[in-house]
Amino acid sequence: MQKKMIKKIRKRDTKGLDYVINNYSKKVYYLVDKIIGFYGREEVEECVSDVFYELWENIDQFDEKRGEFSSFIYMKTKYKALDYKRRLEKKEVHKTELEDDITNKITTEHIVLDKESSEEIIEIINNFKEPDKTYFYNRYFMYYKVDDIAVMYKTTRASVENRLYRCRLKIKEMLEGRK
């Protein structure tokens, strides 16, 4: 039955794909859920769909001499789910960085906008010691990413973040002290 089903898929007969979905979807779903279930049901279902679509599109990659069809499906599933996981992790990291960045900018910009003159801010920044002044300038005026600043100055991301945090605190303290 399995050989007939593979032939049907190769001939683009959807009955072959229906057979595969009916017989393998539970295990495919289970494997995908184990790998990316943390990201939500919607992501899992999308990945499962992509597994079967890829199977449909790349059925010619299956070689009976190299192994069982079930192994072929499960390997496709594993690699597709891992691709999804990498993409979702990258998306999460970017989202978190963006949220942190927006929060920091809003707080800093709020202080800047609340004050009568930005000259006070520039004076405070100009009094920062190096490399704080350079880091702050690159981050908030040139809009460099923290990772890029760390690479440029051969330091760690944590070091840059800590220095920027202390700079923002100094600005806030000095501006609040002048009220």
Would you kindly provide a brief summary of this structure?
This protein is mainly α and 179 residues long. The protein has helices at residues 2-10, 14-36, 41-57, 69-114, 118-126, 132-140, 146-152, 157-177. The termini are far apart.
Q: Examine the secondary-structure arrangement and name the CATH architecture of the largest domain.
A: Orthogonal Bundle
How would a textbook summarize the main sheet?
none
Instruction: Please tell me how large the radius of gyration is.
Output: 27 Å
Name given to the CATH homologous superfamily of the largest domain: RNA polymerase sigma factor, region 2, helix turn helix motif
Please tell me what the overall shape is. Answer: rod-shaped
Tell me the β content.
Answer: under 5%
What's the N-to-C terminus distance? 82 Å
Class by SSE composition: mainly alpha
Q: Enumerate the spans where pLDDT stays under 50 for 5 or more consecutive residues.
A: none
Number of helices: 8
How many strands? 0
- Give the helix level as a range of percent: over 70%
Describe this structure in words.
- The protein has eight helices and no strands.
- It has two domains: 2-90, Rna Polymerase Sigma Factor, Chain: A (Orthogonal Bundle), CATH 1.10.1740.10; 115-177, Orthogonal Bundle (Arc Repressor Mutant, subunit A).
- Helix 1 (2-10) crosses helix 2 (14-36) and helix 5 (118-126) packs across helix 8.
- It has 179 residues and is mainly α.
- The protein is rod-shaped.
- The mean pLDDT is 82.
- It has helices at residues 2-10, 14-36, 41-57, 69-114, 118-126, 132-140, 146-152, 157-177.
